[in-house]
């Protein structure tokens, strides 16, 4: 993959991540901080109605693009990235089957995977952004996400931030699906 293509891929994914972060924060804010009135919230209604499709698409993109980075761009994943993949990859199948069967109970089964993946991602991002140029917690094999292979929008968007965004967006969608009640 040439550098120009890689740059545009990074900008595309970074832009999508920022939009997804904003939409997720708005959804959680509306869900937990806006009092429920007689008027329905169209944004939360949309998420509640289509959360299976949205969750499947986000988990699919969050599984395909790390493979593009590792297999096409030859950015080898670090130890923590592998652990996050372990918790993200099965979600594509879970949300795919749930979408096929229109099974909203997938929230119960996906939430533990998402929670552990999210905590790993928070841990990795903490050391990535606030660690003092250390290679920890990545292993000593030379593979480290601290090489800053992806750094767009002033360094805000990185591979760890893309993973954190995916986990956060999926947790937000499942929170809306679980807590947003049909009756007011």
UniProtKB/TrEMBL annotation:
Main localization of the protein?
A: membrane
Q: Where in the cell is it found?
A: Membrane
One GO BP annotation here? protein folding
Its domain of life reads Bacteria
Care to name a GO molecular-function term for this sequence? protein-disulfide reductase activity
Q: Which UniProt keywords apply?
A: Chaperone, Disulfide bond, Electron transport, Membrane, Oxidoreductase, Redox-active center, Transmembrane, Transmembrane helix, Transport
Q: What family does this belong to?
A: Belongs to the DsbB family. BdbC subfamily.
Specify the protein name.
Putative disulfide formation protein
